[in-house]
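Need a sequence for this fold. Nothing fancy.
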């Protein structure tokens, strides 16, 4: 089997089976008596039912039981909820209350709202620091969002860029000295260019006075937690080390999907290490090999050969780009529990590095 690492990260374009693969890996490791935490961004509906995460968009850890070979396997799962991660990251109840209904935070932590990737990193870092799990499995956002995710430590750095932050801290201090809103607005007016100034006055008309107040809260409260946010950058170092992470680039057995996986792996190159696994999901090979059309049906025989050859060629192509390529079958049973069982068994057969 592929030796488990403290962090295992699943990436790829939408629909190839990232979430399914990540979940089956989590269940497999749990069946090997590992304490596993699965952090998933957006499980498909049926999988969510299976994991009993239907009503748990709360970022809390849920204990999940999965039936596997007549036994019950226990694992832990979180459905990422960026706003909960952010609020938990603050250091006081007072600040949490201030930002709880803050509109700017609501927008930033909406799906793909700009802070999700940073929050996913914070979530993983927080769970790593808890030291409760043998293995944290991360199902990442699809394609481009995944690259954003990897770049997000850069985003954190930029956010806390010294000069930018000093300006806002100055506003914060001034605003504290004089609690009147018009005063902090005056300061803002002084330091920003006329263009931005105009924009702010428009925004104020559209959003009401509360916009500037919320803006100020957001910046100053987040800045107060800067050390905490910057600590999350450690996580990026984790991902670059063979002994600490396993990388899985998930694709399905189609020409353009494999191309996508190669592209994603190449964009992610600076963040990964050389031991990358390519998981070719939804392969028909295992069925085709067992299928022997009778001699009379030449068309079927030719079809079988062509399909096998095509799939093998795709896998060979993948092998040139990734040092480890593992195929997973297209599971014919529609029931998610059955799908999961087949895939868990496949993880058991895989050969990897230690
Ligand atoms: N090996 C497989 N066999 C059959 N169906 C699969 C397999 N892997 C994934 N699927 C199906 O493909 C769809 C997309 O899978 P999902 O894991 O949600 O993809 P992603 O997370 O990459 O968007 C789901 O309906 C899932 O049940
Ligand atoms: Mg998914």
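Here you go.
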């Amino acid at each position: 089997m592929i030796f488990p690492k403290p962090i295992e990260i699943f990436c790829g374009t939408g629909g190839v089976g990232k979430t399914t693969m990540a979940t089956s890996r989590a269940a497999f490791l749990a069946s090997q008596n590992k304490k596993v935490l699965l952090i998933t961004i957006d499980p498909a509906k049926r999988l969510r039912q299976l994991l009993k995460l239907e009503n748990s968009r709360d970022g809390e850890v849920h204990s999940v039981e999965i039936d596997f070979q007549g036994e019950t396997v226990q694992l832990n799962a979180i459905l990422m909820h960026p706003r909960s991660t952010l609020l938990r990251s603050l250091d006081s109840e007072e600040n949490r209350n201030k930002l709880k209904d803050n509109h700017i935070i609501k927008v930033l932590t909406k799906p793909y709202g700009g802070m999700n990737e940073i929050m996913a990193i914070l979530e993983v870092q927080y769970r790593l620091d808890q030291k409760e799990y043998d293995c944290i499995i991360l199902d990442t956002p699809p394609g481009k969002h995944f690259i954003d995710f990897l770049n997000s430590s850069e985003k954190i750095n930029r956010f806390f860029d010294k000069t930018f932050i000093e300006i806002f801290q100055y506003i914060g201090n001034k605003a504290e000295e004089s609690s009147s809103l018009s005063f902090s607005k005056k300061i803002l007016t002084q330091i920003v260019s006329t263009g931005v100034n105009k924009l702010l006055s428009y925004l104020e008309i559209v959003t009401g006075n509360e916009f500037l107040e919320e803006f100020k809260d957001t910046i100053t409260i987040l800045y107060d937690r800067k050390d905490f946010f910057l600590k999350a950058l450690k996580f990026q170092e984790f991902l670059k080390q063979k002994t600490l992470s396993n990388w899985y680039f998930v694709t399905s057995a189609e020409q353009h999907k494999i191309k996508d996986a190669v592209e994603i792996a190449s964009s992610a190159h600076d963040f990964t290490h050389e031991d990358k696994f390519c998981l070719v999901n939804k392969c028909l090979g295992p069925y085709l090999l067992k299928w022997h059309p009778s001699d009379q049906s030449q068309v079927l025989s030719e079809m079988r050969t062509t399909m096998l050859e095509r799939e093998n060629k795709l896998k060979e192509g993948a092998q040139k780009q990734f040092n480890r390529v593992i195929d997973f079958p297209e599971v014919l049973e529609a029931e998610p529990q059955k799908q999961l069982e087949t895939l868990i068994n496949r993880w058991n057969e895989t050969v990897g590095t230690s």
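For context: The radius of gyration is 24 Å.
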